Amino acid sequence: MKNKMVLGILIIIMIISAIFMGVNSAEVNTINKTNTVQKANTIQTNNKLNESINNETVKNSINTVETIKPVKEENGAKVKEKSVASVETSEEYITEDDLIYSSKYLVKEKVIYRIDPKTSIEKFKKNIEVAKGNEIKIYKGKKEVTSGYIGTGMTIKGENGQEYTTSVIGDITGDGIANQVELTIIIRHMIKLEGWELEGIEVAAADITGDGKINLLDISKLINYIVYGSWDYEERETPNAPQIKVISEREENEEYYIDKVEIKIEENKSTKNAKTTYKITGSKEQEETEIKEGETITLTGEGEYLITAYTYGIEGNRSKGANRLIKIKGKQIEPEEPEDPEKYTVTYNPGEQGLFAEQKTENLSYGEKTPEFTGEKTGKEGYTFAGWEPEVAETVTENVVYTAKWSQNKYTVTYNPGEQGLFAEQK
User: Fold this and answer.
1) Which of 2, 426, 22, 7 is nearest to 224 (CA)?
2) Coil, helix or strand for 26?
3) Which strand (E) or helix (H) includes residue 14?
4) Can you name the residues that pair with 73 across neighbouring β-strands?
5) What is the dihedral sign for C-alpha 174, 177, 181, 184?
6) Residues with Cβ < 8 Å from 305, sequence gap 6 or more?
7) How many helices (H) and strands (E) does the chain have?
8) Cα separation of 4 and 13, whole Å?
9) Strands (DSSP E) along 102-183, which ranges?
10) Among 50-54, 188-192, 333-337, whose mean pLDDT is lowest?
11) DSSP letters spanning 237-258
12) How far is CA 279 from the centre of its chain?
């Protein structure tokens, strides 16, 4: 209890000190509000803060700030590990619209949050997974960064055009380090000192606890980190991919389904989840849609359908994609030949105006090519052959009579007056 009281007094002293430095320092008045690095340089010139932080009395006064016993330590940050049950899912992958996935960091809305201070570029890359076939580059402003620490506000760019911004815990200045400079900036922001308002990604970095607020708890955590080089926090839960199950039976010895397929998506409940979604691409396009527990998806019609499903955590981060390719092929109805093949006759009939003899072809088998009419299609004077009724089929399927159709010829009669005539020509 005594130690906690000392800590509280210390925080109050820090706030008063920050106010004093903000009001009385001539350098502060000349700083551009939006330039955090310039603010940091001003703070670093004031040795009073460094002396107060490094004082042995401070170390002795905050040795009981946190009582959580850590399980592992990464970059000076002690992390309580959570055991996550592994489940067998359909093939999991990082989709093109995600580019980056991480079970270590909080990845959502194109921002990578909760990166520990003093995380090297090399270690950062080991803690993320990138969509297959893509490579990433890291930039600070317009300059590519290949070594040193990952810092708040850096940009991760993928070959597919996707971009992510980084947020390092406690790092306001973008150098990847959380120290007394950040502590002063956060205090001045918290007490709403004019000219020290944090904006955008800086706010996320200043939220040490990750609870969406910047308050005394964040300040105490940062003091503990500055003095001891470590802090305690619970590792963020990353949801596991759901399972995509096909309820329909697969056609025997084939890689496709027949007629219609019913799909069920099962959420992995080993973590606290907000929702599960799916989308369809391929022969049918459907945008990402939430699916409730117990709902099913029905696919109909020939084609290939790629089902992709995700589960979202309570903090907005989502799992890798679980995917399943569904191929549907309709039943092919083939004409069946009778057990005792029947013989058929094809007849070509001249019709009312035709003069040619009727032609019959007998003893034809089912499916055999229809015989052609071999005679001359002659008709009565003034008529021209105009085809067969019905239209001749390619193959024999029954007894059939094709009757010739005829069109009547049209003529013109003209009365001409001749050379000596005076009447008009009549047609």
Assistant:
1) 7
2) helix
3) helix 2-24
4) 78
5) positive
6) 280, 281, 282, 283, 284, 299, 325, 326, 327, 328
7) 9, 24
8) 14
9) 106-108, 111-115, 129-130, 136-140, 143-144, 155-158, 163-168
10) 50-54
11) P-PPP-EEEE-SPPPTT-SSEE
12) 8
The contacts found for 378-385 with CB under 8 angstroms, 24 or more apart, are: 378/354, 379/350, 379/353, 379/354, 379/355, 379/404, 379/406, 380/353, 380/354, 380/355, 380/406, 382/408, 382/409, 383/353, 383/407, 383/408, 383/409, 384/409, 385/354
Residue 293 and residue 267 in contact, taking contact as beta carbons nearer than 8 Å: yes
Give the pair of three-digit tokens for residue 380: 């009565």
- Quote the mean pLDDT of the chain: 78
Can you say whether residue 195 is alpha, beta or left, with left for phi > 0 and alpha for psi between -120 and 50 degrees?
left
Q: Is 199 exposed, middle or buried (0-12, 13-18, 19+ CB in 10 A)?
A: exposed
338-363: pLDDT as tens digits: 566 789 999 999 999 999 999 999 99
243-246/257-258 β-pairing: unpaired
Segment 230-254 mean pLDDT:
74
